[in-house]
Amino acid sequence: MLKLVRVDERLVHGQVAVGWTSDASANTILVANDEAQKDKIKAMALDLAKPAGVNLYIRSIEESGPIVEKFASAKKAQVLVLVRTVKDALKLIKESNGTIKELNVGGLKFEDGKKKLNEFVAVSDQDIKDLKEIDSMGVKLDFRMLPRDKRLGLNDLLREV
Amino acid sequence: MKNIILATHGNLSFEFKNTLELIVGKTDNIECFGMTKDKSSESGKKELGYLIESVDESNLIILTDLFGGSSANICMELLLQGHKFKLLTGLNLPMLLSLVTSDNDDISVNDLTNKIIDSAKSGVVDVNKAISERS
Question: Where is the PTS EIIB type-4 domain positioned along the sequence (chain A) (predicted)?
Answer without folding.
Answer: 1-161
